[in-house]
């Protein structure tokens, strides 16, 4: 366990209220054709709507919203939407616009919300007409009217000027997909009701309509079930691994949380008001350890197990006794009472069958039930859950593993291991939601910046989320209607705080929303990137802690002869304009514009930022460049030797305050400084920490490699290439220093020229793991 990290001092991903005001001015950019055909026009891009509407026709003039404007609505449904619009305007633009009775004509003009059965295009469609004297939002149904209000609110927040000016136009709009989803894992880490509500608000303002709530897993059962109180009393708490699980008094310090049924009802109501349906997930037969911990009779071994405090794929399954099926049905009975939506998610993923294979009793039950293998057993259980749900007028949805052993008749498949499961299910005539981990898993990090929070460093950048197309090209036309839509999933193993949840979601949710809502041929990356500036402005108005890393400038610095360095700048989203200084000053619109790699004389202090319309997108970060900084690399700046399963992990301590972060390949903790210049280098210093090895890897565990140790606690070893000569070897201590780190130094065998420095720790270190924090070369 390591307590602090020097580089954590500079770590941040909080929103800085940076000056981006000019960005919100409608951008008249040239749309660049995307891969799917005719993109949005420059004019459409200029309105900065996200997602883009299906059709937008500009008109002459504009409508001003001010405190003398009034809102008109007839009937409860339209009045409710008008009030929601007024609320959003109040919170984000600090403007009070009163709701008036029909017939009242305010001198500041009127915004009218109308339920109009004549508006076609489906229940979520709407029409928005803006002229200089009047705004009319009309839809056949409240859902559509709400989306019309969201579009109007977006127009009112694209530009921070007062009074608010809405360009005259007509928008006719309807979504491309009916399932526009986001999944949040509240089991691995828990979010408060207030945080869930903030997320629901943000979803609604992106026109997303499905919130998949992952409520049960090995690490916690988070929904109160009256009939089984221990599910939350016991199954709602775990003792975190390592130092995070020990209080200052030396006693276990549990991590707990669950939603009472009253809170669930409150969240369901809040979502419904925003036209979001909640799909609850009760996971079976795997991801069951919290339930089995609370009620061991549900498990296969009968052993008392703790609620799991490790991440990965765990082998604990529910057993297949009739009493366990009854338990699952009793849980579903309370779930369907709480959640009025059509779908209930029953999980089905990653149910490694080892326990069932090894259990004579499960094998006996399989014979009794006439199922031929363990996949068939899972299918039997899922079909049983479907029967219950169908009898209660609900539909079952599960992860794509429910295909194995045979799908229940009416099941919908959520395709996460790529899109293949979805294609197979559609071919079998089943509905599908596309949620491939390769494109739509938001626990994957979005940039390789050292400022990223913990997560999975196999990147899913914004561009990749944006480019995802849910209807596979090869899918026969008659099966396409089975693709209900798409969903991004937020797994929270690495998200201890809601701030991290927000970092993962925003701005990638905007890319998801555009694919989910807008016509395919309208999508174009460059236009979306331009509209994002206004979207960030909206996030700030809403108090959303969005990721800054996609908007930061990255620098690569290499040393040059005569005390100089070569600096190469880039930014993750490819914004064309970057400006920089080398004297430590904040870059301004008059600072040097980056054109190509440039030389600086050392020492220097580099600051660079992306500029849009004369202002930095996010504040520039300082980077000191001197001879010693060029001889030092943090773990984020090093490559992984093999990269079999790289994670960006957070330390297990301290209890309060920031914790160190480490990039580490947990199958082969080994770091590589490629082509390190060793001329004149005499010594090497490694700062290392230690953390728990808290992973369940099921059948992948043998892939974890350990190198033999020669001394009692193993060695730090540095080689010229991982299979090359040993350049230094230092015995490891039994424990770290009081700050949780050790600094290990060694003379380096003379090795002139450039070498790939390979750094690793020998020995089987479980249940802990050494991790590299910094590598520094010291000249003679
Ligand atoms: C999953 O990611 N295990 C659905």
**Cα-based radius of gyration, to the nearest Å:** 28 Å
Task: Give the tally of β-strands.
Answer: 40
Number of helices: 18
Anisotropy-based shape: globular
Percent range for β-strand residues = 25-35%
Distance between the termini: 33 Å
Find the CATH superfamily of the largest domain: Glycosidases
Average pLDDT, rounded to a whole number, is 92
Spatial strand order of the main sheet: 14-9-8-20-19-18-17-16
> How does the major sheet shape up?
8 strands, parallel
Q: Considering DSSP H and I runs of 4 or more, what fraction of the residues is helical?
A: 10-25%
Given the helix and strand composition, which structural class is it?
alpha/beta
EC number: 3.2.1.52
Keywords: Glycosidase, Hydrolase, Signal
Catalytic activity: Hydrolysis of terminal non-reducing N-acetyl-D-hexosamine residues in N-acetyl-beta-D-hexosaminides
Signal peptide: 1-33
How does this structure look, described?
It is a single chain. This protein is an alpha/beta fold and 780 residues long. The protein folds into four domains: 29-173, Chitobiase/beta-hexosaminidase domain 2-like (Chitobiase, domain 2, 2-Layer Sandwich), CATH 3.30.379.10; 179-495 and 504-513, Glycosidases (TIM Barrel), CATH 3.20.20.80; 552-630, Immunoglobulin-like, CATH 2.60.40; 632-779, Sandwich (Jelly Rolls), CATH 2.60.120.260. 23% of the residues lie in helices and 27% in strands. It contains 18 helices and 40 strands. Helix 2 packs parallel to helix 3 (142-157), helix 4 (193-205) runs parallel beside helix 6 and helix 8 (322-338) crosses helix 11 (374-391). The longest helix has 18 residues, at 76-93. It binds acetamide.
């Amino acid at each position: 366990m390591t307590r602090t990290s020097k580089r954590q001092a500079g770590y941040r991903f909080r929103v800085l209220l940076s000056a981006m005001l000019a960005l919100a001015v409608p951008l008249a950019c040239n749309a660049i054709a995307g891969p799917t055909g005719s993109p949005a026009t420059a004019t459409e891009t200029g309105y900065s709507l996200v997602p883009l509407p299906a059709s937008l026709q500009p008109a002459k003039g504009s409508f001003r919203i001010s405190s003398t404007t009034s809102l008109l609505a007839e009937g409860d449904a339209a009045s409710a939407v008008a009030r929601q619009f007024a609320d959003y305007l109040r919170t984000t633009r600090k403007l009070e616009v009163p709701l008036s009775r029909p017939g009242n004509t305010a001198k500041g003009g009127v915004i009218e919300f109308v339920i109009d059965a004549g508006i076609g295009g489906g229940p979520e469609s709407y029409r928005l007409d803006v002229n200089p004297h009047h705004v009319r939002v009309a839809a056949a149904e409240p859902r559509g009217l709400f989306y019309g209000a969201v579009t109007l609110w977006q127009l009112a927040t694209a530009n921070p000027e007062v009074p608010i000016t809405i360009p005259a136009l007509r928008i006719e709009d309807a979504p491309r997909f009916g399932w526009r989803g986001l999944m949040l894992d509240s089991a691995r880490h828990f979010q408060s009701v207030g945080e869930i509500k903030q997320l629901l608000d943000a979803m609604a303002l992106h026109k997303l309509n499905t919130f998949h709530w992952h409520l049960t897993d090995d690490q916690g059962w988070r929904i109160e079930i009256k009939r089984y109180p221990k599910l939350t009393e016991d199954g709602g708490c775990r003792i975190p691994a390592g130092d995070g699980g020990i209080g200052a008094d030396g006693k276990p310090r549990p991590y707990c949380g669950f939603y009472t049924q009253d809170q669930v009802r409150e969240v369901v109501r809040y979502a419904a008001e925003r036209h979001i349906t909640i799909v609850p997930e009760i996971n079976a037969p795997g991801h069951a350890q919290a339930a089995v911990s609370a009620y061991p009779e549900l498990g296969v071994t009968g052993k008392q197990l703790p609620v799991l405090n490790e991440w990965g794929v765990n082998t604990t399954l529910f057993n297949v006794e009739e009493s366990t099926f009854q338990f699952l049905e009793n849980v579903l009975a309370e779930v369907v009472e709480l959640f009025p939506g059509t779908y209930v998610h029953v999980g089905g993923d990653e149910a490694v069958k080892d326990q069932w294979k090894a259990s004579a009793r499960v094998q006996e039950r399989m014979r009794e039930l006439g199922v031929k293998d363990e996949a068939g057993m899972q299918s039997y259980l899922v079909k049983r859950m479907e029967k219950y749900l169908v009898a209660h007028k609900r539909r079952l949805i599960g992860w794509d593993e429910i295909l194995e052993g045979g799908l229940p008749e009416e099941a919908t498949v959520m395709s996460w291991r790529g899109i293949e499961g979805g294609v197979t299910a559609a071919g079998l005539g089943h509905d599908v939601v596309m949620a491939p981990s390769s494109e739509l898993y938001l626990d994957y990090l979005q940039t390789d910046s050292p400022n990223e929070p913990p997560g999975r460093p196999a990147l899913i950048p914004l561009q990749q989320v944006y480019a995802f197309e849910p209807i596979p090209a090869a899918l026969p036309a008659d099966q396409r209607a089975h693709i209900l839509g798409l969903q991004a999933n937020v797994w929270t193993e690495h998200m201890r705080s809601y701030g991290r949840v927000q970092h993962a979601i925003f701005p990638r949710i905007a890319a998801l929303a555009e694919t989910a809502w807008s016509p395919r041929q309208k999508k174009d990356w460059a236009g979306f990137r331009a509209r994002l500036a206004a979207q960030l402005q909206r996030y700030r108005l809403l108090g959303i802690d969005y990721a800054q890393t996609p908007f930061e400038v990255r620098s690569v610095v290499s040393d040059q002869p005569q005390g100089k360095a070569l600096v190469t700048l880039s930014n993750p989203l490819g914004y064309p304009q970057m400006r920089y200084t080398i004297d430590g000053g904040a870059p301004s619109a008059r600072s040097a514009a980056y054109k190509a790699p440039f030389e600086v004389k050392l020492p220097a202090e580099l600051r660079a930022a992306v500029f849009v319309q004369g202002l930095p997108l996010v504040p520039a970060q300082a980077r000191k460049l001197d001879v010693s900084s060029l001889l030092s690399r943090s773990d984020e700046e090093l490559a992984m030797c093999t990269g079999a399963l790289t994670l960006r992990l957070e330390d297990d301590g301290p209890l309060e305050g920031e914790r160190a972060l480490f990039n580490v390949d947990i199958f082969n903790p080994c770091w590589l400084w490629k082509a390190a210049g060793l001329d004149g280098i005499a010594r090497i210093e490694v700062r290392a920490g230690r953390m728990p090895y808290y992973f369940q890897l099921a059948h992948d565990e043998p892939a974890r490699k350990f190198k033999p140790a020669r001394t009692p606690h193993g060695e730090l070893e540095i080689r010229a290439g991982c299979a090359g000569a040993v350049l230094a070897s230092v015995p490891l201590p039994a424990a770290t220093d009081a700050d949780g780190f050790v600094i290990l130094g060694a003379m380096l065998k003379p090795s002139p020229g450039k070498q790939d420095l390979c750094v690793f720790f020998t020995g089987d270190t479980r249940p802990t793991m050494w991790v590299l924090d910094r590598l520094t070369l010291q000249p003679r």
